[in-house]
Amino acid sequence: MQQFGKISTDRQSFENRVTSLFDIQYPIIQAGMIWASGWKLASAVSNAGGLGLIGAGSMYPDVLEQHIKQCKQATDKPFGVNLPLLYPDIQQHIDHIITLQVPIVFTSAGNPKTWTKTLKENGIKVVHVVSSAKFALKSQDAGVDAVVAEGFEAGGHNGREETTTMCLIPSVREAIDIPLIAAGGIATGRSMLAAMILGAEAVQIGSRFVCTPEASSHIHFKNKIVEAEEGQTELVLKKLTPVRLLKNEFYNQVKDAEGHCMSDAALTELLGRGRAKKGMFEGDLTEGELEIGQISSIIRQIMPAADIVNEIWTEFDSVLKTISTLT
Questions:
Q1: How far apart are CA 56 and CA 51, in angstroms?
Q2: Would you put residue 311 in left (φ > 0), alpha (ψ -120 to 50) or beta?
Q3: Confidence tier at 241 by pLDDT (50, 70, 90)
Q4: What is the pLDDT of residues 97-117, one digit of tens each?
Q5: Does residue 155 carry a pLDDT above 70?
Q6: Helix (H, G, I), strand (E, B) or coil at 130
Q7: Sorting pLDDT into bands at 50, 70 and 90, what band is 13?
Q8: What is the dihedral of CA 219, 220, 225, 231, to 10 degrees?
Q9: Fewer CB atoms near the end CB (10 Å): N or C, the chain?
């Protein structure tokens, strides 16, 4: 299969369309998560052979500028920026990305046609995050270099379709010709292999990388993830913008409000400002918004980002070799 690429016997090289596109060693991409994915995490993943992303969603333009500069100092490997397109400071973000020559941008939460041409004209590779085959095709038509298909299992903001990764990846693979990256519910080498069997050529992993020393998220939040069990996340706020949360008192307030059919305006007021920062960055596990994926139930320790990359790749390679002996 093309997505498996060429794997050397000593595991020191791997090549397929995604690794060639980004000039990386392994087809493992760290998601650009708000309040977690700063320059320390992005550079650690890139130095380990994957692709690290700075999460611009929680950054003012001047903060993003500093993170890009520090990431450039911390790694000589490719890295990128995850850029939600719905933010009011988007033009300033774009200006910094172009001026500082960031090589790769992952866009999300908006129309890929808006900025893809501008970014590509400045030599930047563009990837767009989607939750359906329909929008994957629109992204391909907009000229992006690859798409991330993110399933319902993922943490944070999610698609309204609620399509699981196992259903989504084959559907998107059938719809597009450009490289496909799978996301949602992936944290191990086995799940990486499963995604690639379904048609992906790389994986994007978020929740697992939150539980690293390099992630800027609060230690209280990291410990809460490690303690999480099955069924302790849920997709809520579907009337506004669907988001998967770890259950806590704030989650209970949201569920109560939705159960009483509160208006969009009332739900927006309940959210207020800074809920995500309060929970994930400041460590308020009661009143804060705790965005994390379903896969949190199998994350059992905080470990360095490089060790996670190595563990995932080692397991992927081992299981693939085992399967190969059965054919």
A1: 16
A2: alpha
A3: confident
A4: 999 999 999 999 889 999 999
A5: yes
A6: strand
A7: low
A8: -170
A9: C
Tokens in use for 60?
A: 């003012």
Instruction: Report, as an integer, the average pLDDT of 204-229.
Output: 97
| Pair 257, 266: CB distance under 8 Å | yes
Note the pLDDT tens digit of each residue in 186-209.
999 999 999 999 999 999 999 999
Q: What tokens appear for 149 in the block?
A: 């298909």
201, two tokens: 């050529």
CB burial of residue 255 (10 Å; 0-12, 13-18, 19+): middle
How many residues are listed for the chain in this entry? 327
- DSSP label at 280? I
Token pair belonging to 168: 């989504």
CA 101 to chain centre: 21
Nearest-angstrom CA–CA distance, 130 and 139: 8
Confidence band, pLDDT 50/70/90 cuts, at residue 5: low
Q: How far apart are CA 89 and CA 131, in angstroms?
A: 24
pLDDT at residue 292, as a whole number: 96
CATH 3.20.20.70 domain range(s) in the chain:
2-216+298-324
Identity (one letter) of the amino acid at 1?
M
β-pair type (14-15, 6-7): antiparallel
Q: Provide φ and ψ at 82, rounded to 5°.
A: -90, 125
Average pLDDT, the chain: 92
Collect all residues with Cβ–Cβ distance below 8 Å to 226 and sequence separation of at least 6.
211, 299, 300, 301, 302
Q: How are the residues of the chain apportioned to helix, strand and coil, as percentages rounded to the nearest 5?
A: 45, 15, 40
- Strand residue runs (E) in 177-231: 180-183, 202-205
User: 296: which 2 tokens?
Assistant: 């949190």
Burial class (CB in 10 A: 0-12, 13-18, 19+), 323: exposed
One-letter identity of residue 120: K
Architecture of the 2-216+298-324 domain: Alpha-Beta Barrel (3.20)
234 CA to centre of own chain = 18
